[in-house]
Amino acid sequence: MGRSKLVLSVCCVCWKAWNGDPTLAPETDPWEALDTLVERQHLAPQDYELSHGYCPRCTLTLLQAFRAQSAERTAPFAQTDVSLPQPPAAGAGGGKAPPSMH
Ligand SMILES: [Zn+2]
């Protein structure tokens, strides 16, 4: 019976690993360079396996890039604001011109 492997979540964009350390101060970034993490926790290669994902920072970056891209792509179909009810025109019955001072 070997001890179970530690699964490290590694961001596949910036290669930072989530150290999953609950004792860290909240202001500490729980994502650190994989090398640093492995070294600090004295992990041997057989002690852990990698699970690829995205760190929050890269998720945000990718999400923004994706939104910008999809906004461009779906522009003809994304005009949802067109169907919004229009507010009633002010001064119903009158002309479009604002009252002029004489
Ligand atoms: Zn990342």
Output the helix-strand order.
EEEHEH
Give the fraction of residues assigned to helices. 10-25%
Structural class: alpha+beta
Radius of gyration, in Å, reads: 27 Å
Task: Count the beta strands.
Answer: 4
Low confidence ranges: none
Our measurement of the CA-to-CA distance between the termini, rounded to an integer number of angstroms, reads 97 Å
Number of helices: 2
Major sheet characteristics: 4 strands, mixed
Question: Strand portion, in percent?
Answer: 15-25%
Q: Mean pLDDT across all residues, rounded?
A: 80
List the ligand species. zinc ion
Inertia-based shape: elongated
Biggest sheet, spatial arrangement of strands: 3-2-1-4
Task: Itemize the secondary structure elements and their pairings.
Blueprint: E1 6-11, E2 16-18, E3 31-33, H1 34-40, E4 48-53, H2 56-73
Parallel strand pairs: 1-4
Antiparallel strand pairs: 1-2, 2-3
The protein binds zinc ion.
